[in-house]
Protein backbone atom coordinates (compact mmCIF):
# COMPACT_ATOMS: atom_id res chain seq x y z
CA UNK A 1 0.00 0.00 0.00
CA UNK A 2 2.13 2.84 -1.23
CA UNK A 3 1.09 5.85 0.72
CA UNK A 4 1.96 9.46 0.01
CA UNK A 5 2.64 10.20 3.64
CA UNK A 6 5.02 7.27 3.66
CA UNK A 7 6.57 8.75 0.59
CA UNK A 8 7.65 11.28 3.10
CA UNK A 9 7.63 14.44 1.11
CA UNK A 10 9.54 15.53 4.22
CA UNK A 11 12.63 13.43 4.56
CA UNK A 12 14.29 14.83 7.61
CA UNK A 13 17.95 15.61 7.62
CA UNK A 14 18.02 15.81 3.86
CA UNK A 15 19.25 19.27 4.66
CA UNK A 16 22.59 18.31 6.00
CA UNK A 17 25.16 20.95 6.76
CA UNK A 18 23.98 24.52 7.22
CA UNK A 19 26.67 27.10 6.57
CA UNK A 20 25.61 30.11 8.56
CA UNK A 21 28.89 31.60 9.78
CA UNK A 22 32.38 32.10 8.38
CA UNK A 23 34.94 29.31 8.58
CA UNK A 24 36.61 28.70 11.92
CA UNK A 25 39.96 30.47 12.08
CA UNK A 26 43.02 28.43 11.17
CA UNK A 27 44.39 28.88 14.68
CA UNK A 28 41.82 26.36 15.94
CA UNK A 29 43.39 23.70 13.68
CA UNK A 30 39.90 22.57 12.72
CA UNK A 31 38.23 22.33 9.35
CA UNK A 32 34.70 21.96 8.07
CA UNK A 33 33.59 18.34 8.32
CA UNK A 34 32.74 17.66 4.70
CA UNK A 35 30.82 19.54 2.04
CA UNK A 36 28.39 22.24 3.09
CA UNK A 37 25.87 24.37 1.18
CA UNK A 38 26.70 27.94 0.30
CA UNK A 39 25.11 30.79 2.27
CA UNK A 40 21.76 30.19 3.91
CA UNK A 41 21.32 33.71 5.28
CA UNK A 42 18.09 34.09 3.31
CA UNK A 43 16.64 30.96 4.90
CA UNK A 44 17.90 31.93 8.35
CA UNK A 45 15.71 35.03 8.21
CA UNK A 46 12.67 32.82 7.55
CA UNK A 47 13.21 30.60 10.59
CA UNK A 48 10.83 31.30 13.47
CA UNK A 49 10.38 30.03 17.03
CA UNK A 50 14.10 29.30 17.36
CA UNK A 51 15.34 27.66 20.55
CA UNK A 52 18.22 25.49 21.68
CA UNK A 53 17.95 21.72 21.45
CA UNK A 54 17.68 20.18 24.90
CA UNK A 55 21.23 19.35 26.06
CA UNK A 56 20.24 15.77 26.90
CA UNK A 57 18.37 15.02 23.68
CA UNK A 58 19.87 11.97 22.00
CA UNK A 59 21.26 12.71 18.54
CA UNK A 60 22.19 10.21 15.81
CA UNK A 61 24.73 11.15 13.16
CA UNK A 62 26.60 9.53 10.30
CA UNK A 63 30.11 10.67 9.56
CA UNK A 64 30.55 9.72 5.91
CA UNK A 65 34.11 9.30 4.72
CA UNK A 66 35.38 10.00 1.23
CA UNK A 67 35.41 6.92 -1.04
CA UNK A 68 38.47 5.67 -2.89
CA UNK A 69 38.50 4.74 -6.57
CA UNK A 70 35.01 6.15 -6.98
CA UNK A 71 35.41 6.43 -10.74
CA UNK A 72 35.78 2.65 -11.00
CA UNK A 73 32.73 1.75 -8.92
CA UNK A 74 30.12 1.78 -11.68
CA UNK A 75 32.22 -0.40 -13.98
CA UNK A 76 32.84 -2.91 -11.18
CA UNK A 77 29.11 -3.17 -10.40
CA UNK A 78 28.39 -3.83 -14.05
CA UNK A 79 31.22 -6.35 -14.34
CA UNK A 80 30.10 -8.64 -11.52
CA UNK A 81 26.49 -8.55 -12.73
CA UNK A 82 26.92 -8.90 -16.50
CA UNK A 83 27.21 -12.33 -18.19
CA UNK A 84 30.32 -12.78 -20.29
CA UNK A 85 32.48 -10.54 -18.13
CA UNK A 86 35.47 -12.24 -16.49
CA UNK A 87 34.32 -10.91 -13.09
CA UNK A 88 30.73 -12.14 -13.50
CA UNK A 89 29.25 -13.46 -10.23
CA UNK A 90 32.45 -12.72 -8.31
CA UNK A 91 30.47 -10.90 -5.66
CA UNK A 92 32.28 -8.82 -3.06
CA UNK A 93 32.21 -9.18 0.70
CA UNK A 94 31.88 -6.00 2.83
CA UNK A 95 35.58 -6.17 3.70
CA UNK A 96 36.50 -6.50 0.02
CA UNK A 97 34.40 -3.43 -0.70
CA UNK A 98 36.31 -1.52 1.98
CA UNK A 99 39.63 -2.66 0.57
CA UNK A 100 38.84 -1.25 -2.86
CA UNK A 101 36.46 1.67 -2.23
CA UNK A 102 36.41 2.51 1.49
CA UNK A 103 38.95 4.07 3.81
CA UNK A 104 41.43 1.65 5.40
CA UNK A 105 41.16 0.58 9.03
CA UNK A 106 44.11 2.82 9.88
CA UNK A 107 42.07 5.86 8.83
CA UNK A 108 38.69 4.73 10.23
CA UNK A 109 40.31 3.89 13.56
CA UNK A 110 41.41 7.51 14.09
CA UNK A 111 37.84 8.66 14.75
CA UNK A 112 36.82 6.50 17.73
CA UNK A 113 39.27 8.09 20.24
CA UNK A 114 38.04 11.51 19.17
CA UNK A 115 34.39 10.62 19.79
CA UNK A 116 35.23 8.83 23.05
CA UNK A 117 36.79 12.07 24.25
CA UNK A 118 33.37 13.72 23.96
CA UNK A 119 31.42 10.78 25.44
CA UNK A 120 29.89 9.89 22.07
CA UNK A 121 29.33 6.32 20.99
CA UNK A 122 30.70 5.39 17.59
CA UNK A 123 30.64 2.30 15.40
CA UNK A 124 32.01 1.92 11.89
CA UNK A 125 30.54 -0.19 9.11
CA UNK A 126 32.76 -2.72 7.37
CA UNK A 127 32.54 -0.70 4.15
CA UNK A 128 35.03 1.85 5.50
CA UNK A 129 32.73 4.71 4.52
CA UNK A 130 30.28 5.32 7.36
CA UNK A 131 30.79 5.83 11.09
CA UNK A 132 27.63 5.88 13.20
CA UNK A 133 27.86 8.43 16.03
CA UNK A 134 25.32 8.97 18.82
CA UNK A 135 25.05 10.79 22.08
CA UNK A 136 23.61 13.76 23.89
CA UNK A 137 23.18 17.04 22.04
CA UNK A 138 25.52 18.86 24.44
CA UNK A 139 28.31 16.43 23.58
CA UNK A 140 27.60 16.64 19.85
CA UNK A 141 27.90 20.42 20.13
CA UNK A 142 31.25 20.12 21.89
CA UNK A 143 32.66 17.59 19.44
CA UNK A 144 31.60 19.42 16.26
CA UNK A 145 31.60 23.02 17.59
CA UNK A 146 27.93 23.29 16.66
CA UNK A 147 24.98 24.87 18.46
CA UNK A 148 22.01 22.61 17.70
CA UNK A 149 18.71 24.47 17.61
CA UNK A 150 15.12 23.89 16.59
CA UNK A 151 12.88 26.26 14.66
CA UNK A 152 10.01 26.45 12.20
CA UNK A 153 10.52 26.91 8.47
CA UNK A 154 7.24 27.64 6.67
CA UNK A 155 5.52 25.94 9.67
CA UNK A 156 7.71 22.84 9.25
CA UNK A 157 9.94 21.74 12.16
CA UNK A 158 13.67 22.19 11.57
CA UNK A 159 16.72 21.15 13.56
CA UNK A 160 19.85 23.04 12.56
CA UNK A 161 23.13 24.54 13.68
CA UNK A 162 24.10 28.13 13.01
CA UNK A 163 27.72 26.97 13.06
CA UNK A 164 29.20 24.60 10.54
CA UNK A 165 30.26 21.26 12.02
CA UNK A 166 34.04 21.17 12.26
CA UNK A 167 36.58 18.57 13.34
CA UNK A 168 40.35 18.45 13.81
CA UNK A 169 41.97 19.04 10.42
CA UNK A 170 43.48 15.55 10.15
CA UNK A 171 40.05 13.97 10.68
CA UNK A 172 38.08 16.46 8.58
CA UNK A 173 40.38 15.83 5.62
CA UNK A 174 38.78 12.42 4.98
CA UNK A 175 35.14 13.41 5.67
CA UNK A 176 32.69 13.68 2.77
CA UNK A 177 29.79 14.93 4.89
CA UNK A 178 28.00 14.55 8.22
CA UNK A 179 24.38 13.41 8.19
CA UNK A 180 21.95 14.31 10.95
CA UNK A 181 23.07 17.78 12.04
CA UNK A 182 20.07 19.31 10.29
CA UNK A 183 16.58 17.89 9.95
CA UNK A 184 13.72 19.35 7.93
CA UNK A 185 10.24 17.90 8.24
CA UNK A 186 7.61 18.39 5.56
CA UNK A 187 4.08 17.12 6.00
CA UNK A 188 1.86 15.69 3.27
CA UNK A 189 -1.45 13.95 2.86
CA UNK A 190 -1.88 10.22 2.60
CA UNK A 191 -3.03 8.18 -0.33
CA UNK A 192 -4.16 4.88 1.10
CA UNK A 193 -5.17 2.54 -1.65
CA UNK A 194 -7.54 0.39 0.33
CA UNK A 195 -10.41 -0.87 -1.75
CA UNK A 196 -12.51 -2.49 0.96
CA UNK A 197 -12.51 -4.32 4.25
CA UNK A 198 -13.41 -7.98 4.37
CA UNK A 199 -14.22 -10.25 7.26
CA UNK A 200 -12.79 -13.37 5.63
CA UNK A 201 -10.17 -14.63 3.21
CA UNK A 202 -11.18 -14.40 -0.45
CA UNK A 203 -9.38 -16.48 -3.05
CA UNK A 204 -9.51 -13.80 -5.76
CA UNK A 205 -7.35 -11.54 -3.60
CA UNK A 206 -4.84 -14.24 -2.57
CA UNK A 207 -1.09 -14.03 -3.35
CA UNK A 208 -1.56 -17.09 -5.58
CA UNK A 209 -2.91 -14.62 -8.15
CA UNK A 210 0.63 -13.29 -8.52
CA UNK A 211 2.29 -16.71 -8.64
CA UNK A 212 -0.12 -18.09 -11.24
CA UNK A 213 -0.39 -15.05 -13.49
CA UNK A 214 3.34 -14.44 -13.63
CA UNK A 215 4.31 -18.14 -13.91
CA UNK A 216 6.04 -18.64 -10.60
CA UNK A 217 4.05 -21.80 -9.86
CA UNK A 218 6.26 -23.98 -12.12
CA UNK A 219 9.22 -23.14 -9.88
CA UNK A 220 7.23 -24.21 -6.81
CA UNK A 221 6.45 -27.47 -8.62
CA UNK A 222 10.20 -28.09 -8.86
CA UNK A 223 10.52 -27.62 -5.11
CA UNK A 224 11.95 -24.09 -5.12
CA UNK A 225 10.27 -22.11 -2.34
CA UNK A 226 13.03 -19.90 -0.95
CA UNK A 227 14.65 -22.48 1.31
CA UNK A 228 18.14 -21.56 2.45
CA UNK A 229 17.52 -17.88 1.60
CA UNK A 230 17.03 -14.73 3.66
CA UNK A 231 15.02 -11.87 2.19
CA UNK A 232 15.26 -8.43 3.75
CA UNK A 233 12.61 -5.75 4.34
CA UNK A 234 13.60 -2.13 4.93
CA UNK A 235 10.92 -0.33 6.92
CA UNK A 236 10.36 2.75 9.04
CA UNK A 237 7.48 1.62 11.26
CA UNK A 238 6.63 -1.03 13.82
CA UNK A 239 6.76 -4.74 13.05
CA UNK A 240 3.88 -6.98 14.14
CA UNK A 241 4.99 -10.57 13.65
CA UNK A 242 1.66 -12.09 14.69
CA UNK A 243 -0.20 -10.32 11.85
CA UNK A 244 2.03 -11.92 9.21
CA UNK A 245 1.85 -15.32 10.88
CA UNK A 246 -1.96 -15.11 11.00
CA UNK A 247 -2.02 -14.08 7.32
CA UNK A 248 0.05 -17.04 6.10
CA UNK A 249 -1.96 -19.46 8.22
CA UNK A 250 -5.30 -18.11 6.98
CA UNK A 251 -4.10 -18.23 3.37
CA UNK A 252 -3.06 -21.86 3.97
CA UNK A 253 0.55 -21.13 3.04
CA UNK A 254 2.94 -23.58 4.66
CA UNK A 255 5.78 -21.40 5.89
CA UNK A 256 9.00 -21.92 7.77
CA UNK A 257 8.34 -21.33 11.50
CA UNK A 258 9.97 -18.52 13.50
CA UNK A 259 11.23 -17.01 10.27
CA UNK A 260 10.98 -13.29 11.12
CA UNK A 261 13.83 -11.46 12.86
CA UNK A 262 14.03 -7.70 13.41
CA UNK A 263 17.13 -5.52 13.46
CA UNK A 264 16.33 -2.18 15.10
CA UNK A 265 18.53 0.66 13.91
CA UNK A 266 18.93 3.76 16.04
CA UNK A 267 18.13 7.01 14.27
CA UNK A 268 16.18 10.05 15.28
CA UNK A 269 12.76 10.42 13.73
CA UNK A 270 12.21 13.17 11.21
CA UNK A 271 8.57 12.41 10.51
CA UNK A 272 6.10 10.43 12.59
CA UNK A 273 6.21 7.13 10.71
CA UNK A 274 5.02 4.82 13.45
CA UNK A 275 1.32 5.38 12.81
CA UNK A 276 -1.31 2.85 11.78
CA UNK A 277 -0.63 3.38 8.08
CA UNK A 278 3.08 2.76 8.58
CA UNK A 279 2.44 -0.44 10.50
CA UNK A 280 0.02 -1.63 7.82
CA UNK A 281 2.67 -0.98 5.18
CA UNK A 282 5.18 -3.04 7.12
CA UNK A 283 2.67 -5.86 7.63
CA UNK A 284 2.00 -5.95 3.91
CA UNK A 285 5.67 -5.99 2.94
CA UNK A 286 6.37 -8.93 5.24
CA UNK A 287 3.18 -10.81 4.36
CA UNK A 288 3.61 -10.48 0.59
CA UNK A 289 7.31 -11.33 0.40
CA UNK A 290 6.88 -14.20 2.84
CA UNK A 291 3.89 -15.61 0.96
CA UNK A 292 5.81 -15.66 -2.33
CA UNK A 293 8.89 -17.32 -0.73
CA UNK A 294 7.28 -19.44 2.03
CA UNK A 295 10.49 -21.21 3.11
CA UNK A 296 12.77 -18.15 3.25
CA UNK A 297 13.85 -16.39 6.41
CA UNK A 298 12.78 -12.74 6.73
CA UNK A 299 15.09 -10.11 8.16
CA UNK A 300 13.44 -6.75 8.87
CA UNK A 301 15.63 -3.64 9.10
CA UNK A 302 13.65 -1.09 11.11
CA UNK A 303 14.72 2.53 11.49
CA UNK A 304 13.18 5.98 11.74
CA UNK A 305 12.86 7.76 8.42
CA UNK A 306 15.61 10.37 8.19
CA UNK A 307 18.77 10.81 6.17
CA UNK A 308 20.58 8.79 8.85
CA UNK A 309 17.86 6.15 9.11
CA UNK A 310 17.59 5.53 5.36
CA UNK A 311 21.34 5.19 4.85
CA UNK A 312 21.87 3.08 7.96
CA UNK A 313 19.04 0.66 7.17
CA UNK A 314 20.68 -0.26 3.87
CA UNK A 315 24.23 -0.06 5.21
CA UNK A 316 23.30 -2.43 8.03
CA UNK A 317 21.71 -4.92 5.64
CA UNK A 318 24.76 -4.92 3.38
CA UNK A 319 27.10 -5.01 6.37
CA UNK A 320 25.39 -8.16 7.68
CA UNK A 321 25.27 -9.58 4.14
CA UNK A 322 22.61 -12.11 5.23
CA UNK A 323 19.79 -11.09 2.90
CA UNK A 324 20.30 -12.00 -0.76
CA UNK A 325 17.41 -9.71 -1.72
CA UNK A 326 15.82 -6.58 -0.22
CA UNK A 327 12.74 -4.47 -0.81
CA UNK A 328 11.56 -1.05 0.37
CA UNK A 329 8.22 0.70 -0.09
CA UNK A 330 9.07 4.27 0.94
CA UNK A 331 10.40 7.35 -0.80
CA UNK A 332 10.11 11.09 -1.48
CA UNK A 333 9.60 13.45 -4.38
CA UNK A 334 12.69 14.53 -6.30
CA UNK A 335 11.18 18.00 -6.15
CA UNK A 336 11.99 18.24 -2.47
CA UNK A 337 15.67 17.56 -3.02
CA UNK A 338 15.84 20.33 -5.62
CA UNK A 339 13.79 22.70 -3.45
CA UNK A 340 15.95 22.26 -0.38
CA UNK A 341 19.06 22.66 -2.48
CA UNK A 342 17.74 25.93 -3.91
CA UNK A 343 17.00 27.13 -0.39
CA UNK A 344 20.55 26.22 0.69
CA UNK A 345 19.18 23.61 3.07
CA UNK A 346 20.43 20.58 1.17
CA UNK A 347 23.96 19.44 0.64
CA UNK A 348 24.36 18.15 -2.90
CA UNK A 349 26.07 14.94 -1.77
CA UNK A 350 23.18 13.04 -0.13
CA UNK A 351 22.19 11.33 -3.36
CA UNK A 352 25.86 10.45 -3.80
CA UNK A 353 26.05 8.94 -0.32
CA UNK A 354 23.03 6.73 -0.92
CA UNK A 355 24.37 5.82 -4.34
CA UNK A 356 27.63 4.57 -2.80
CA UNK A 357 25.70 2.41 -0.35
CA UNK A 358 23.41 0.98 -3.04
CA UNK A 359 26.38 0.23 -5.26
CA UNK A 360 27.92 -1.73 -2.39
CA UNK A 361 24.81 -3.91 -2.24
CA UNK A 362 24.90 -4.51 -5.99
CA UNK A 363 28.59 -5.46 -5.80
CA UNK A 364 27.76 -7.96 -3.06
CA UNK A 365 25.12 -9.60 -5.27
CA UNK A 366 22.10 -8.32 -3.34
CA UNK A 367 18.95 -7.86 -5.46
CA UNK A 368 17.36 -4.63 -4.22
CA UNK A 369 13.78 -3.62 -5.14
CA UNK A 370 12.11 -0.26 -4.51
CA UNK A 371 8.49 0.70 -5.19
CA UNK A 372 8.00 3.24 -7.96
CA UNK A 373 5.18 5.12 -6.20
CA UNK A 374 1.41 5.32 -6.36
CA UNK A 375 0.60 8.78 -7.71
CA UNK A 376 1.31 7.95 -11.33
CA UNK A 377 4.00 9.97 -13.00
CA UNK A 378 3.25 12.84 -10.64
CA UNK A 379 4.61 14.00 -7.31
CA UNK A 380 3.81 16.86 -5.02
CA UNK A 381 5.96 19.91 -4.49
CA UNK A 382 5.76 23.00 -2.32
CA UNK A 383 3.18 25.36 -3.77
CA UNK A 384 2.52 29.04 -3.35
CA UNK A 385 -0.35 30.99 -1.80
CA UNK A 386 -2.89 33.53 -2.96
CA UNK A 387 -4.18 35.16 0.22
CA UNK A 388 -5.39 32.40 2.52
CA UNK A 389 -5.53 29.80 -0.28
CA UNK A 390 -2.74 27.28 -0.82
CA UNK A 391 -1.98 26.32 -4.41
CA UNK A 392 -0.70 22.83 -5.19
CA UNK A 393 2.57 22.18 -6.94
CA UNK A 394 1.84 18.97 -8.77
CA UNK A 395 3.89 17.81 -11.72
CA UNK A 396 5.94 14.98 -13.22
CA UNK A 397 8.66 14.99 -10.59
CA UNK A 398 10.74 11.86 -10.10
CA UNK A 399 10.75 9.70 -6.99
CA UNK A 400 13.78 9.12 -4.76
CA UNK A 401 15.25 6.50 -4.24
CA UNK A 402 13.17 4.62 -6.84
CA UNK A 403 15.29 6.58 -9.31
CA UNK A 404 18.56 5.09 -8.02
CA UNK A 405 20.53 3.29 -10.75
CA UNK A 406 21.51 0.36 -8.48
CA UNK A 407 17.99 -0.77 -7.58
CA UNK A 408 15.34 -2.59 -9.60
CA UNK A 409 12.27 -0.39 -9.47
CA UNK A 410 8.82 -2.00 -9.31
CA UNK A 411 6.00 -0.36 -11.25
CA UNK A 412 2.29 -1.16 -11.40
CA UNK A 413 -0.33 -2.61 -13.73
CA UNK A 414 -4.08 -3.18 -13.68
CA UNK A 415 -5.44 -6.65 -14.44
CA UNK A 416 -8.53 -7.19 -16.60
CA UNK A 417 -11.75 -6.72 -14.62
CA UNK A 418 -15.35 -5.58 -14.76
CA UNK A 419 -17.18 -3.91 -11.93
CA UNK A 420 -20.33 -1.91 -11.34
CA UNK A 421 -19.89 1.16 -9.15
CA UNK A 422 -23.27 2.70 -8.38
CA UNK A 423 -25.06 2.86 -11.72
CA UNK A 424 -21.87 2.92 -13.74
CA UNK A 425 -19.97 -0.06 -15.14
CA UNK A 426 -16.23 0.11 -15.54
CA UNK A 427 -14.07 -2.46 -17.29
CA UNK A 428 -10.49 -3.10 -18.30
CA UNK A 429 -10.15 -5.65 -21.10
CA UNK A 430 -6.43 -6.47 -20.88
CA UNK A 431 -3.51 -5.94 -18.51
CA UNK A 432 -2.40 -2.35 -18.80
CA UNK A 433 -0.38 0.28 -16.96
CA UNK A 434 -1.99 1.20 -13.66
CA UNK A 435 -3.59 4.61 -14.05
CA UNK A 436 -7.05 5.60 -12.93
CA UNK A 437 -7.91 7.32 -16.21
CA UNK A 438 -10.29 4.39 -16.83
CA UNK A 439 -12.48 6.07 -14.18
CA UNK A 440 -12.54 9.45 -15.92
CA UNK A 441 -15.69 8.81 -17.97
CA UNK A 442 -17.43 7.89 -14.76
CA UNK A 443 -16.08 11.08 -13.20
CA UNK A 444 -17.38 13.15 -16.11
CA UNK A 445 -20.89 11.75 -15.56
CA UNK A 446 -20.77 11.74 -11.74
CA UNK A 447 -18.73 14.79 -10.77
CA UNK A 448 -20.86 15.43 -7.70
CA UNK A 449 -20.12 11.96 -6.36
CA UNK A 450 -16.36 12.42 -6.65
CA UNK A 451 -16.25 16.03 -5.53
CA UNK A 452 -18.21 15.19 -2.40
CA UNK A 453 -16.02 12.18 -1.54
CA UNK A 454 -12.37 13.05 -1.01
CA UNK A 455 -11.25 9.41 -0.90
CA UNK A 456 -12.93 8.72 -4.22
CA UNK A 457 -11.37 11.83 -5.74
CA UNK A 458 -7.90 10.80 -4.58
CA UNK A 459 -8.43 7.45 -6.26
CA UNK A 460 -8.72 9.32 -9.56
CA UNK A 461 -5.12 10.48 -9.07
CA UNK A 462 -3.68 7.04 -8.34
CA UNK A 463 -1.38 5.12 -10.62
CA UNK A 464 1.96 3.39 -10.88
CA UNK A 465 5.02 5.59 -10.48
CA UNK A 466 7.37 6.06 -13.38
CA UNK A 467 9.33 8.67 -15.25
CA UNK A 468 12.83 9.99 -15.84
CA UNK A 469 15.10 11.06 -13.01
CA UNK A 470 16.76 14.46 -12.91
CA UNK A 471 19.09 13.39 -10.09
CA UNK A 472 20.79 10.39 -11.66
CA UNK A 473 21.99 10.04 -15.25
CA UNK A 474 21.05 7.23 -17.61
CA UNK A 475 22.84 4.09 -16.37
CA UNK A 476 24.93 2.03 -18.77
CA UNK A 477 22.48 -0.89 -18.83
CA UNK A 478 19.75 1.41 -20.23
CA UNK A 479 21.87 3.08 -22.89
CA UNK A 480 20.77 2.20 -26.41
CA UNK A 481 17.59 0.41 -25.27
CA UNK A 482 14.68 1.44 -27.49
CA UNK A 483 12.20 3.58 -25.58
CA UNK A 484 14.68 4.78 -22.97
CA UNK A 485 14.95 8.59 -22.94
CA UNK A 486 12.12 8.89 -25.46
CA UNK A 487 8.50 8.94 -24.38
CA UNK A 488 4.86 9.06 -25.32
CA UNK A 489 2.56 10.82 -22.89
CA UNK A 490 -0.99 12.03 -22.38
CA UNK A 491 -1.68 14.73 -19.81
CA UNK A 492 -4.55 13.05 -18.00
CA UNK A 493 -4.23 15.35 -14.97
CA UNK A 494 -3.73 19.12 -14.92
CA UNK A 495 -1.27 20.84 -12.60
CA UNK A 496 -4.32 21.86 -10.56
CA UNK A 497 -5.07 18.16 -10.08
CA UNK A 498 -8.10 18.11 -12.38
CA UNK A 499 -8.83 15.02 -14.54
CA UNK A 500 -8.71 15.60 -18.29
CA UNK A 501 -10.77 13.61 -20.77
CA UNK A 502 -9.26 12.46 -24.07
CA UNK A 503 -5.89 14.26 -23.88
CA UNK A 504 -3.81 14.32 -27.04
CA UNK A 505 -0.76 12.11 -27.48
CA UNK A 506 2.54 13.89 -26.88
CA UNK A 507 6.03 12.65 -27.72
CA UNK A 508 9.40 13.85 -26.54
CA UNK A 509 12.88 13.10 -25.27
CA UNK A 510 14.57 13.48 -21.90
CA UNK A 511 17.70 12.14 -20.27
CA UNK A 512 18.29 10.41 -16.94
CA UNK A 513 17.66 7.19 -15.07
CA UNK A 514 14.40 5.84 -16.53
CA UNK A 515 12.16 3.97 -14.10
CA UNK A 516 10.41 1.60 -13.33
CA UNK A 517 12.28 -1.43 -14.61
CA UNK A 518 9.49 -4.04 -14.37
CA UNK A 519 5.84 -4.07 -13.34
CA UNK A 520 3.08 -6.28 -11.95
CA UNK A 521 -0.49 -5.91 -10.71
CA UNK A 522 -0.70 -2.99 -8.26
CA UNK A 523 -4.16 -1.52 -8.77
CA UNK A 524 -6.33 -1.83 -5.62
CA UNK A 525 -9.25 -2.61 -7.94
CA UNK A 526 -7.45 -5.86 -8.77
CA UNK A 527 -5.38 -5.97 -5.61
CA UNK A 528 -4.45 -8.32 -2.81
CA UNK A 529 -5.80 -9.08 0.61
CA UNK A 530 -3.66 -8.28 3.62
CA UNK A 531 -4.14 -8.65 7.37
CA UNK A 532 -3.27 -5.74 9.66
CA UNK A 533 -4.44 -4.53 13.06
CA UNK A 534 -6.87 -7.42 13.34
CA UNK A 535 -8.61 -6.70 10.01
CA UNK A 536 -8.59 -8.07 6.49
CA UNK A 537 -8.18 -5.39 3.85
CA UNK A 538 -7.92 -5.37 0.07
CA UNK A 539 -5.03 -3.15 -0.91
CA UNK A 540 -2.84 -2.22 -3.81
CA UNK A 541 0.11 -0.06 -4.70
CA UNK A 542 3.56 -0.65 -6.09
CA UNK A 543 4.59 -1.42 -2.53
CA UNK A 544 2.82 -4.74 -3.10
CA UNK A 545 5.00 -5.42 -6.13
CA UNK A 546 8.44 -4.69 -4.65
CA UNK A 547 8.13 -7.30 -1.86
CA UNK A 548 6.62 -9.78 -4.34
CA UNK A 549 9.72 -9.43 -6.56
CA UNK A 550 11.79 -9.76 -3.39
CA UNK A 551 10.12 -13.09 -2.60
CA UNK A 552 10.39 -14.28 -6.20
CA UNK A 553 14.13 -13.63 -6.08
CA UNK A 554 14.46 -15.84 -3.00
CA UNK A 555 12.58 -18.58 -4.88
CA UNK A 556 14.90 -18.33 -7.90
CA UNK A 557 18.00 -18.22 -5.68
CA UNK A 558 16.87 -21.38 -3.88
CA UNK A 559 16.70 -23.16 -7.23
CA UNK A 560 19.94 -21.87 -8.71
CA UNK A 561 21.95 -22.13 -5.49
CA UNK A 562 23.54 -18.72 -6.06
CA UNK A 563 22.50 -15.10 -5.81
CA UNK A 564 20.83 -13.52 -8.81
CA UNK A 565 22.64 -10.32 -7.94
CA UNK A 566 21.60 -6.93 -9.29
CA UNK A 567 18.94 -7.71 -11.91
CA UNK A 568 19.18 -4.76 -14.27
CA UNK A 569 22.27 -5.52 -16.38
CA UNK A 570 20.82 -8.91 -17.32
CA UNK A 571 17.16 -8.02 -17.69
CA UNK A 572 17.85 -5.17 -20.12
CA UNK A 573 19.95 -7.55 -22.22
CA UNK A 574 17.26 -10.24 -22.15
CA UNK A 575 14.52 -7.76 -23.04
CA UNK A 576 16.31 -6.96 -26.30
CA UNK A 577 16.58 -10.65 -27.29
CA UNK A 578 13.29 -11.63 -28.96
CA UNK A 579 14.01 -15.32 -28.50
CA UNK A 580 14.97 -15.19 -24.81
CA UNK A 581 12.95 -12.33 -23.39
CA UNK A 582 10.81 -13.35 -20.41
CA UNK A 583 8.95 -10.03 -20.46
CA UNK A 584 5.61 -8.97 -21.91
CA UNK A 585 5.87 -5.37 -23.09
CA UNK A 586 2.79 -3.21 -22.51
CA UNK A 587 3.43 -0.82 -25.38
CA UNK A 588 0.00 0.46 -26.44
CA UNK A 589 -0.34 4.23 -26.47
CA UNK A 590 -4.05 4.09 -25.66
CA UNK A 591 -5.71 2.94 -22.42
CA UNK A 592 -2.25 2.22 -21.02
CA UNK A 593 -1.12 5.22 -18.99
CA UNK A 594 0.18 6.00 -15.51
CA UNK A 595 -1.75 9.28 -15.86
CA UNK A 596 1.02 10.74 -18.03
CA UNK A 597 3.47 8.31 -19.64
CA UNK A 598 2.01 5.69 -21.92
CA UNK A 599 3.30 2.93 -24.20
CA UNK A 600 5.68 3.35 -27.12
CA UNK A 601 4.49 0.86 -29.76
CA UNK A 602 7.23 -1.43 -30.98
CA UNK A 603 9.77 -0.25 -28.41
CA UNK A 604 11.24 -2.36 -25.62
CA UNK A 605 10.79 0.18 -22.81
CA UNK A 606 8.26 2.76 -21.62
CA UNK A 607 8.14 4.84 -18.45
CA UNK A 608 4.65 3.65 -17.46
CA UNK A 609 5.58 -0.03 -17.00
CA UNK A 610 9.30 -0.33 -17.81
CA UNK A 611 10.20 -3.55 -19.63
CA UNK A 612 6.75 -4.91 -18.81
CA UNK A 613 5.57 -7.91 -16.81
CA UNK A 614 7.59 -11.04 -15.97
CA UNK A 615 7.23 -14.70 -16.81
CA UNK A 616 9.27 -16.05 -13.89
CA UNK A 617 9.63 -19.54 -15.37
CA UNK A 618 11.24 -18.07 -18.48
CA UNK A 619 13.29 -15.66 -16.37
CA UNK A 620 14.62 -18.59 -14.33
CA UNK A 621 15.64 -20.44 -17.49
CA UNK A 622 17.24 -17.45 -19.24
CA UNK A 623 18.87 -15.70 -16.28
CA UNK A 624 22.51 -16.64 -15.73
From TrEMBL:
Taxon lineage: Bacteria, Bacillati, Bacillota, Bacilli, Lactobacillales
Protein name, entry field: Aspartyl protease
Record's keyword annotation contains Secreted: no
Family annotation (Gene3D superfamilies): Peptidase S8/S53 domain (3.40.50.200)
Organism of provenance: Lentilactobacillus fungorum
GO BP: any one term: proteolysis
Record key words, sorted: Calcium, Hydrolase, Metal-binding, Protease, Serine protease, Signal, Zymogen
Signal peptide: 1-26
Residue ranges constituting the Peptidase S53 domain according to the UniProt record: 210-624
Listed GO MF terms: peptidase activity
Named cofactor requirement(s): Ca(2+)
Coiled-coil portions: none
Keyword Metal-binding: yes
One Pfam family this sequence matches: Pro-kuma_activ
Taxonomy, superkingdom: Bacteria
